[in-house]
């Protein structure tokens, strides 16, 4: 069983300088993350790194032992690319065939913890949201941990990748979406907003929160009241509270 898991993981890895460079040229959208050895002095490795950064792909360093483990061989030539097993949708495809009369979208800006992403996708599927949107080159890749944390929901939930959060919000405004974000300093309670219309909920990264330029495009920032000693909720819990309030209002 363990051997089967290792083989399954290896099928999602492209390794070797020429192979990764070809993947960057032909199918960059399929790449979740590229790992390099700590020394990238080889000209072709430098070329791959420059191309990856130009396309705003997520990159990282790894020891040779880890690269060998990912590739299943020592012949990785210092580079491995993790290839997504997820088929991404465009926003247009989602909105052309919505689940809901008034679509419900969840936008994640650069979440780093794959457990949070998986948990959010699981909750989004539970309330029959239309899609979860991710930002290219930001946050954790959609990896095996995300799959596991979603408890199978990733197989059903439509996931989109957008190049720019701001442009995405501008597009949704043109489509008459209400856009909200959670902020513990906001004056409006999350239950006081009408969430029955076309809705996009935007959640910022763990720790840093939502970028200021993105907040400007939100129609409302809302707060979730807290009576205890903690100052904030985990982002996946925040997502759950807002998504279930949207469903409660729509069912009512």
UniProtKB/TrEMBL annotation:
CDD domains: SpoU-like_RlmB. The keyword Methyltransferase applies. Residues 13-89 form the RNA 2-O ribose methyltransferase substrate binding domain. The keyword Signal does not apply. GO terms for cellular component: cytosol. It holds the Pfam family SpoU_methylase. PANTHER family: 23S RRNA (GUANOSINE-2'-O-)-METHYLTRANSFERASE RLMB (PTHR46429). This is RNA methyltransferase, TrmH family, group 3.
